[in-house]
Design goal:
Layout (H helix, E strand, L loop, with lengths): L2 H21 L4 E5 L8 E9 L3 E7 L1 H12 L8 H22 L7 E3 L3 E4 L13 E7 L4 E7 L1
Antiparallel strand pairs: 1-6, 2-3, 2-4, 2-5, 3-7, 6-7
Helix pairs in contact: 1-3, 2-3
């Protein structure tokens, strides 16, 4: 397995652990290395280090509402757009933090930057031609989350 395959495993495990811990939802990879864009809400973390990159965690509002409801302990109807934005940012932050521990002592070790989110439909990320893209779509059959890492 090459380094990007290993990085894909590390970040996938970090995201699945975060989602399961905060919501009880057990996600599994359903698509790998697809580049079909992002969903309605995306949390972003800049990964700054010797090998810098970007982590994106993306979900549609309905799926994120389910995860957010479990995460913050309120009913689905009580979840606000602000809660969804905070949750997708926190998923990116926690995923990056978990991955950072696994990458300690490697060239892919990074420092954490503050997370941010963007929202909108039909959002695309265009990277330079030689940028390595790791992309996963994870689902439990009910909710789906997309993850993209670019180095």
């Amino acid at each position: 397995m090459d380094i990007y395959g290993e990085l894909g495993l590390i970040y996938t495990e970090a995201l699945t652990n975060v989602v399961e811990k905060v919501s009880g939802v057990k996600l599994k990879v359903v698509f790998q290395d697809d580049d079909d864009g992002l969903e309605e809400l995306t949390g972003v973390m800049s990964l700054n280090g010797k090998k810098s990159g970007v982590l994106l965690i993306s979900a549609n509002a309905a799926d994120l509402r389910v995860l957010c409801s479990c995460f913050i302990g309120v009913s689905l109807s009580e979840v606000t757009m602000g809660d969804l934005e905070d949750t997708v940012c926190e998923f990116a932050n926690m995923t990056a933090g978990n991955a950072k521990l696994s990458l300690s002592g490697t060239d892919y070790m990074f420092s954490l930057a503050p997370p941010f989110a963007f929202k909108g439909n039909n959002v695309s990320i265009i990277a330079k031609e030689r940028t390595h893209l790791i992309s996963r779509t994870l689902s439990d059959g009910v909710v789906s989350v997309k993850m993209k890492i670019m180095y």
